[in-house]
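Troubleshooting: if your tokenizer reports a length mismatch, compare your output against this known-good record of 171 residues.
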Amino acid sequence: SGTLNVNVLNAIVQRNTEIIGRMELFVVLKLVAAGRTSEYKTRIVKGRKGELATWNERFSFTIPRNALADARLFLEVKDEDVTTDDIVGVGNINLQNCMVFNSARNAYEVRLHYKNEDAGILNVETNGHENIGDSSMDNSEYKIYLDISPMQEVNRESIKDKGMSKEEHSP
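Known-good structure output:
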């Protein structure tokens, strides 16, 4: 399995759901992989249409190795209300073709939509790592650079036999 870290930076929304006053904006992050959904929610920030709303909040998702090919991150910007939260805009990141498990930051400008209309832009960053330690090794984390296309098993014994440290190994 691997860990995907997501930093929800900020958004400029182009849709107003309040008649009077400011919106109480938050972001719902849903990772869908292998038929399972993991979900997080940011804190609420006050905002208006056309203004920068900033969260700068980090979340971590665990993705099973066999689910990487179909993993998708759904992002919803909502306005909190007393009765029902209003959807301001939705967007998603298809993780299939992304370099998900690398230590470098990947920046995304996610276009938000509501009923086929432009609803703004949400800025997020991702990075992550793959966990390949097992009981026969020291259970430390190895960072491996890989594409989310068909994956090949890393031969840990050959890495160990060649005397390579985990920092030296990157395919």
